[in-house]
C-alpha cells in the first residue's frame, strides 16, 4: 500500500517515512501543499497523512483535493492543535482520523492500519471482473487469474482510471519507485503480460492502445 506523508518538519517527515517503510508500506514525502497536490494528481494513494499547518496552505483544505481525486483514499490529519474544536473541524471537513502531536509511533501505525482496513483503495468490480489490490488477486467469472507484480499494478491503475487515457510516463511515475531509472518499454512488457496471461486465455480485452498517447482500460469488451 502507498501512503503520502505531507509534513513540513523534515526530520519528522523522514522519521515517519522510514518507520512506515519498515512496516512494508510504500511512501512518498511532501513538505508543502503545492507538492502534495502534485503527488495526489499523478499517483493513487491508499492514505494521505497530512500535517494541518503547512508553509503554503492548510492541511484540512487538502482533504478536498484528496477526496475529489479518489473518494476511497483515507485522509488523516496530524496536528499540534489539541483543542476539541480543531478536531471536530477536521473531521467535519472530511478527515477520516485526527491524530494529535506529539504521538507514539506504534499508536500512529495502529490507527493508520485501522483506517486502511475500512478505507483506502478497495476492490474494483466491473461486470464479472474483480480486482482486489490488497490481496493482489484477480477473478473473472469465479476463475482466479495468475497476474502479479508490475503487470497487476498497471492493470489496477488503468482500471481505476477507466475513463482516461494514461500515458507511459504517467504509468511509470505512478507505479515505479524510481521511474527515471527504468525505460518506457517496461510498460509494453507489462501490457503484454496482461494480454497473454489474462486477456487471451479468457477471450476478453482489458487494455486498449491509443496510438502516441498511451493506454486506456476498455473492459467490458469482447476480443
From TrEMBL:
Domain named Response regulatory: which ranges?
Answer: 2-116
DNA-binding region boundaries = 121-219
**Domain annotation OmpR/PhoB-type: ranges:** 121-219
Q: Which GO terms describe its biological process?
A: regulation of DNA-templated transcription
Q: Which residues form the signal peptide?
A: none
Annotated positions of the 4-aspartylphosphate modification: 51
Alphabetized, the UniProt keywords read: DNA-binding, Phosphoprotein, Transcription, Transcription regulation, Two-component regulatory system
Q: What molecular functions are annotated in GO for this chain?
A: phosphorelay response regulator activity; transcription cis-regulatory region binding
For this record, the Gene Ontology CC terms, alphabetical, are:
cytosol; protein-DNA complex
Q: Which CDD domains match?
A: REC_HP-RR-like, trans_reg_C
**PANTHER family (UniProt xref):** REGULATOR OF RPOS
Protein name in the entry: Two-component system response regulator
Q: Which organism is it from?
A: Campylobacter iguaniorum
Amino acid at each position: 500500500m502507498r501512503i503520502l506523508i505531507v509534513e513540513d518538519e523534515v526530520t519528522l517527515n523522514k522519521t515517519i517515512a522510514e518507520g512506515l517503510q519498515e512496516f512494508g508500506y510504500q511512501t512518498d514525502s511532501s513538505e508543502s501543499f503545492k507538492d502534495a497536490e502534485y503527488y495526489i494528481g499523478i499517483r493513487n494513494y491508499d492514505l494521505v497523512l497530512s500535517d494541518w499547518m503547512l508553509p503554503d496552505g492548510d492541511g484540512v483544505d487538502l482533504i478536498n483535493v484528496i477526496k475529489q481525486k479518489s473518494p476511497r483514499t483515507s485522509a488523516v490529519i496530524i496536528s499540534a492543535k489539541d483543542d476539541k474544536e480543531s478536531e471536530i473541524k477536521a473531521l467535519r471537513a472530511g478527515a477520516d482520523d485526527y491524530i494529535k502531536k506529539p504521538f507514539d509511533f506504534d499508536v500512529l501505525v495502529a490507527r493508520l492500519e485501522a483506517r486502511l482496513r475500512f478505507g483506502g483503495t478497495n476492490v474494483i468490480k466491473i461486470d464479472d471482473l474483480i480486482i482486489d489490490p490488497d490481496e493482489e488477486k484477480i477473478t473473472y467469472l469465479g476463475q482466479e487469474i495468475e497476474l502479479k507484480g508490475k503487470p497487476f499494478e498497471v492493470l489496477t491503475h488503468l482500471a481505476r482510471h477507466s475513463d482516461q487515457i494514461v500515458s507511459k510516463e504517467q504509468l511509470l511515475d505512478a507505479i515505479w519507485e524510481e521511474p527515471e531509472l527504468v525505460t518506457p518499454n517496461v510498460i509494453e512488457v507489462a501490457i503484454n503480460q496482461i494480454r497473454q496471461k489474462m486477456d487471451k486465455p479468457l477471450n476478453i480485452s482489458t487494455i486498449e492502445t491509443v496510438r502516441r498517447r498511451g493506454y486506456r482500460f476498455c473492459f467490458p469488451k469482447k476480443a
